[in-house]
Each structure stands twice: as C-alpha cells, then as structure tokens.
Amino acid sequence: MQTFEHLDTIRRLNDAARQSPGLASIASITLGFQSLAQTDRLAALTAIVRFSKFDGDNDPYGEHDFGAVYRLASGAWTQDRPSDARTVVQTVFWKVDYYDMDLMFGSEAPWDPTVTKRVLTIMLASEY
Q1: Closest C-alpha to 72, from 54, 55, 91
Q2: Distance CA 110, CA 98 (A)
Q3: pTM for the structure as a whole
Q4: CB 72 within 8 A of CB 82
C-alpha cells in the first residue's frame, strides 16, 4: 500500500529523473524528438529539466511523472500552455515510468530505488 511518505519519495525520485536525465534515470527520446533542430532539442530539454507547472490536469496523483512543453510561433519554449493554441508550433511530452531492475515489468514499489529503475521518455505530442 502506498503511503504519503511513499508519494513524497516517488515525487522526489521523479524530479531527480527529470532534472538529471541519464544520471537519475534512463533517458529515451523518440525519432520525432531527435529530428528537431539541435537548438530546439536543447531548448525543450532545458524547459523539461526546469519544469515546475504541476497541476491537477498533468499530475492528478502528485507523482510529478508527466508534463508538456511548448514551442511558440516566436521560437521560444515554455512550460506554460498558451490560451491561444494557434501560437503553439510544437508540443513535446515527457513521461517517467517505473520498471523493475531488469526493465521487464512495472515496479511494484516505485518509491524504492533499490528495486526500481526510472525511464524518462521524451516525445513529440504527435507521436503519442
């Protein structure tokens, strides 16, 4: 059974996985994300690492395991979803998933880093 302490630990581990992709997690990017211009990939990654806009829509369980960042028509990247969807040129999703140590099955204890590997996946929304 998951407790508040477990949830707090999951949240901290997920934040670390997002803030240090490849160190605190296994990072996986899709072909679509890889096909973005290098400047856009780096700007999107920066927005993901700095992501802090967790709310009931993208984080209903409080685990900090999903988010989206947006490239605007101006070229700027933001974590704030614009009210006018026409200003969004590209949407990138990121997701943290929990696996057993062999990456075969989902982890039964995502709060325990000794039995859980985190995988951070970054993809274009159009690839979802």
Answers
A1: 91
A2: 6
A3: 0.92
A4: yes
